[in-house]
Amino acid sequence: MTVTLRLISTPTANLSYLVIAVYALFGRSQIVQALTLSWLFSMINPALAAEAPYASIGRYTVLAAAALSIIFHSNSFRYSRRFNPIVRFTLMLGIFFVVHSYFFSPVVDVSILKAVSWTVAMCTLCAAWVGLTSVERDLLGLQIFTGLIVVLLVSLPLLLVPSVGYLRNGTGFQGILCHPQVFGPTMALLGAWASGQMLAQNRPSWSVVGLAGACLVLVVLSEARTSGVSLILGVTISAVVVPVLSGRSTRLLLPGLRSRRVHLIVGLALAFALGAGPMIGERIGSYISKRGEPVSFVQAYDNSRGRLINIMWDNIKYEPLQGIGFGIASVPALMIVKRDPVFHLPVSAVVEKGVLPLAVLEEVGVFGLLGVAIWGWMILGRSARAGVGTLAVSITALLLNMGESTLFSPGGLGLLLLILLSWAFANGYEGGGDDSNEC
Asked: Tens digit of pLDDT for each residue in 275-295?
């Protein structure tokens, strides 16, 4: 019903955010579900849904309700309560971002709003996931990925409707989402999960195998090059390092490698690749060059992100320790800040940056980069304990930020990354479960 509200008219589209904000107040599972719907409502294809002029305010309303809900459901007013490690470290990192913004940002209110919203979103999601029992967490995780499968399935008919499925630029497939650079990463994350399931099962089902293949095809059709590389590297790296990070054997963690079904699929794929080599090579070349002249992947990456990297690097050389301000554009004067008409508070300040580590170093300096690196390692370490599937999703989510830095943007694609990273952490967290005092 809530999805219908988002689709049918402008008044109900604005109302849909309020509905899911109220829904978030009812429990931990509802918090994650509400934030996932908030991501979907904000990322939906404009050709399929009514305009929502107050979507930015709606997103903050949902986030505030989710934070209030986790405080209530985690008994946060008890002095004896304790925080799980990732919430504690995320909170410390967020405080650093806020203090840094106050002293060094040229647009203080924008930086502080971005730092607070990211910190609140990540802390709330981690607290919600960790506070669930293992059964509740497994069920909720399945619901999230089933929802992404629905996004895939509903998008497929739009392959035949270019005016909708290719709305943004006419060549990159975006499905029911607002941009190919949103649809591609979404399919990459789903594909990483499906591939992880395939490797972790003794006898992978054909549906999981088919899902992994479909995701890869749709990533290519989206022309989101970083997404394709992130999916392949994320799954490959996770399969290689998960025994080391988790301390368990490859035979135990990756039984799918011995599956005849996997061998059959790989064999057929290789046979097809050999038989259709020229056609595949042409398609891969087109995918890498993205409608331009044939180039190598390194050249394509430089053509796409080289200018952004050069500007960031100039700022880094000038201010390597203090940075230019959290969430601030490399050229601050070119930032477009949208403010609400009543309180004049910033509600949107879109910033386009490429490589996440460079973006973090540019914005918050060396010490900020070190803090983010430790935070990321904590996520990956816990993810590995839960198996190859969670680690594949985590690595893919982080690699996606090597082409488009979205990890600290909870108002857009970044919210989906935070939902899945917190899910992955919680699955490998030994302290999760029924403890209502654990956040």
From this structure: 544 544 555 555 455 555 555
